[in-house]
Design brief:
By secondary structure, this protein is an all-alpha fold. The protein has two domains: 90 residues, Rna Polymerase Sigma Factor, Chain: A (Orthogonal Bundle); 72 residues, Orthogonal Bundle (Arc Repressor Mutant, subunit A), CATH 1.10.10.10. The protein contains eight helices and no strands.
């Protein structure tokens, strides 16, 4: 059974069809939510909230072909809602790669990943959402705009601004002197 048929059946109340849709997308959506929220438990809660909204609102989805984009939109909105609810608490999560690295020497990869992680922490959740959808999920700028329900120019502007902020954060991190080692005798 193809996705369109599953979406149509789920929209008519078929729990098994919805379960199949969830099973096909949960790992991808949790990875997106973790990158945006920087917290494993919050990410799982946000994805669960997105699925609850999806089940509730699925009968109103006009185009079953746009189910994936719609589900990403629900997930991003659930993530941003979680950030608003926990605005005062810093959120951090360890990133885990989706695919194993192909580089034999892990030192450079780990250093680059650590540097990117520090830069990512300095971005807002909105900025992380745009970057994650474009670079991690692989959405075009127009798909990001559709997913976030914003005009194409706004999506491009947010993407450019988020990249500039990430570059500035990484550059600022590079300029900070390393902490001296303390030897305890």
């Amino acid at each position: 059974m193809d996705q369109r048929e599953l979406v149509e059946r789920a929209g008519e109340g078929d729990h098994d069809a919805f379960s199949s849709l969830v099973g096909a997308s949960i790992a991808r959506l949790e990875a997106v939510a973790r990158l945006i929220l920087r917290d494993q438990e919050l990410a799982q809660d946000a994805v669960q909230e997105a699925y609850i909204r999806a089940w509730r609102d699925l009968p109103g989805l006009r185009d079953p072909e746009k189910f994936d984009a719609w589900l990403h939109r629900l997930t991003v909105h659930a993530c941003l809602d979680a950030v608003r609810r926990r605005k005062r608490r810093p959120i951090e999560v360890e990133l885990s790669p989706i695919m194993p690295p192909t580089i034999a020497d892990q030192t450079g990869h780990i250093a680059d990943r650590d540097q990117l992680e520090r830069g990512f922490r300095r971005l807002s959740a909105d900025q992380r959402a745009v970057l994650v959808l474009h670079y991690y999920v692989g959405m075009s700028a127009s798909a990001v705009a559709e997913t976030l329900d914003i005009p194409m120019g706004t999506a491009q502007s947010r993407l450019n601004r988020a990249l500039a902020e990430l570059r500035a954060a990484i550059a600022a991190d590079d300029r900070q002197p390393a902490e001296p080692w303390t030897v305890i005798a």
